[in-house]
Input
Amino acid sequence: GNVSKALWPLLMKAAEVESADLAAGSDLAPVLGKAATGLVQWQKALSRGRIWEKDEGANWPADESLRSEWTDFLKDRDLPQLIRRYPQLLEPLLASLLETVEDFHNENLEEKNEQRKPSQPEEQNENQSEENEDEDAEKQEEEAQEQESKKRDENDEESKDKDGEEDGQEVEDPNSSAEPSPEMGSQQEEQGSEDESSSEVQGQDAAAQDRRNARAADLM
Output
């Protein structure tokens, strides 16, 4: 009744994770000793075509639920009778048991590790929420800047159009619409009268000169 050398590597792995899961890895030696003893007991019982029952001191695998699943697995498939007829199948079956023990406790350890980090998803959600809020704030700021810039451009265009209209109204031909003021008209009338008076005087002087010249001719 010793453990086959081929099974020792699997037995060591199973004992290590079992110790880490059930005994927090405090001491591997007692866990390994119990696993080795339990494996030998399963080997003896199966070689006889039987199952190692609880009333016979079955205490391994150490987890009772796993031990119950393993027992049901053997019974449902009539594996003890098969092993009795084909002893060469015993070692592969025990190797399967050790692998099952290792996988079982590895899953338990992963669940415990996840339970020790309950706040991690919440922190990730909070960080994601903060990032989303920052992105929304930046987007709103950009939109506000775009609207403000657009409004400034529209105001500039309106100001340019208004200045153009005012310039068009101010630039006019002074000669086209200029009308003589009353003062200018009066001055022009006075100037005309003076010119007429001067012409009359000059005409009278010329007539008088002609008369004098005629009298002088008569005397001669």
User: Anything to note?
Assistant: The chain has eight helices and no strands. The CA atoms of residues 140 and 146 lie 10 Å apart.
